[in-house]
Amino acid sequence: MRRTPTRASAPTAVERVRSILAAAHSMTVVCDGRHTEVRRLDGSGALGHFHLHAPFEGTGVPTGARVPVRLELTDIAPTPVRDRLRARVTLTGLLAEPYDPDSTQSTCMEFGQGVLEDGSRRSYVTLHELEATELDPLATSEAGMLTHLVDEHAELVPLLLRLVRPLPDGGVLRALPAGADRYGLTLRLEYRRTHRDVRLPFKTPVQHIDHVGPRIHALLSEARRLSHTGRLLT
């Protein structure tokens, strides 16, 4: 019997790493005993500042000394949710010479390992996976989109709660969008002593940034059609 492929409802670890690298506004470079805060990533992301290439695969020893380097990035929710740290990304590798923070050129880095850490697990990604992964079309627009939703259309968030199953009870103190990607929205439900995230998947993944508006309107339309049962935030 032929099985129907399961439709993805959330990004994979490598998709998340790819998005974080593209959307990052800053990162820490650890090299040769120095910690350097790099804050000129706007518009280019980490991969505009570092060029990653495959590990040395030739015979013998590569010419010239190589210096270990570590890139550290944090993924912070753009909205004022409780516990805004969503994930940490660490890339390790080698440089031909110590990192120069004053250089205006992209630094060539021999890729070693990529690690994604969030509240539930640690995942490893390879350079091949990163290169083969398409960038999420929402990656660099997510922050602006979610802050606009909270600042200009806050009344729509309680409406989206109607899509949560099972329906949240009266213990929810606040709900805010905590993330958005090509597969859907993430709402954070905050209780008195804890919080939890719920996914609201789009019917189909977003292929272009211009398509995200209709996907969100489709979620809102579905929420409006549902009968209002239970006590929700107002």
Q: Which features characterize this protein?
A:
234 residues; elongated; 6 helices; alpha+beta; three-stranded antiparallel beta sheet; Split barrel-like
Q: Could you give the count of β-strands?
A: 10
- Helix count, per DSSP? 6
Rg over C-alpha atoms, rounded to the nearest angstrom = 21 Å
Q: Per DSSP, what share of the residues sits in E-state strands of 2 or more residues?
A: 25-35%
Low-confidence regions? 1-6, 229-234
Description:
- This protein is an alpha+beta fold and 234 residues long.
- The chain has 6 helices and 10 strands.
- It has helices at residues 13-23, 46-49, 127-132, 142-152, 156-160, 212-225; strands at 27-31, 34-38, 50-53, 67-76, 85-95, 107-117, 122-125, 174-181, 184-190, 195-201.
- Strands 1, 2, 3, 4, 5, 6 and 7 form a 7-stranded mixed sheet that branches. A 3-stranded antiparallel sheet has the order 8-9-10.
- β9 and β10 form a beta hairpin.
List the helices and strands and how they pair.
Blueprint: H1 13-23, E1 27-31, E2 34-38, H2 46-49, E3 50-53, E4 67-76, E5 85-95, E6 107-117, E7 122-125, H3 127-132, H4 142-152, H5 156-160, E8 174-181, E9 184-190, E10 195-201, H6 212-225
Parallel strand pairs: 3-6
Antiparallel strand pairs: 1-2, 1-4, 4-5, 5-6, 6-7, 8-9, 9-10
